[in-house]
Amino acid sequence: MPFSYKPLWRLLLEHDLNKTQLREELGLATATMAKMGKNEYVSMEIIDKICNHFNVQPNEIIEWVNSDE
Questions:
Q1: Left (φ > 0), alpha (ψ -120 to 50) or beta: where does 38 sit?
Q2: What CA–CA distance (Å, rounded) separates 12 from 17?
């Protein structure tokens, strides 16, 4: 799992949103949210939807995690 969605979860807190609200607002599948909860890969289309929704850059919703540590 080289990527983490921790920045996205922090962003949700800043906007007083929860994962369900984000999923409903963007029309995301529950499976997609589950993947992000497990730090699994999701498509760039999903990343793009989230970035557009919050008007942020990808590095504000995902972060690279060094798997060697």
A1: alpha
A2: 5
Determine the residue type at 65.
V
- Which helix H or strand E contains 1, and what residues bound it? none
Residue indicated by tokens 């949210």: 33
In this structure, what are the phi and psi dihedrals at residue 3, rounded to the nearest 5 degrees? -125, 150
Q: What is the DSSP letter of 28?
A: -
Confidence (pTM)? 0.89
- Whether the per-residue pLDDT at 1 is higher than 70: the answer is no
- Per 3-state DSSP, the chain is made up of helix, strand and coil in percentages (nearest 5) of 55, 5, 40
* Cβ–Cβ < 8 Å for 61, 6: no
Output phi, psi for 5, to 5 deg.
-100, 15
